[in-house]
Amino acid sequence: MSTPQPLADTWFTRDLPVLRAIVRLIDEPPHGSAPYLGAVVPASGLPKPQVVSAANALVTAGYAEALTNHAGEIVRFTAVSGEARRLTGLWPTPQSEWDRLLEQAGARAASAMTDVERERWRAFADAAAAIGPDDGALLMSALIGGYVPRAR
What we know:
7 helices, two-stranded antiparallel ribbon, mainly alpha, about 60% helix, Arc Repressor Mutant, subunit A
């Protein structure tokens, strides 16, 4: 008896490019914040049958909301979830903000006007890097969410 093979990945090759196109179009005023499926097809760079399959998967998973016709076919996208905005980079994630903080600290150290300022920024960048990405993401999660622990 053979072991069933897992299905081929569709997230990176089909669903994520379509989600990016939907989010980008929803966020642009020319589409009235509710782009038609016909606008998503060229924006995604994929053929229409793949876009339809991805759109159905994304709506079913709760990443997007859509209007359908009487036959149940998606006609237009009306909203996307917060998670869709984070996955596509429109909203920050703790990991992306931590990476930005490290990048900024390094850039400030490199462009500091004085040796004292340069050393302070380097020390900050080194300390932040030493914390590591896991604890750094936890810190950024607290900051993004508006929770900053009180001093004792």
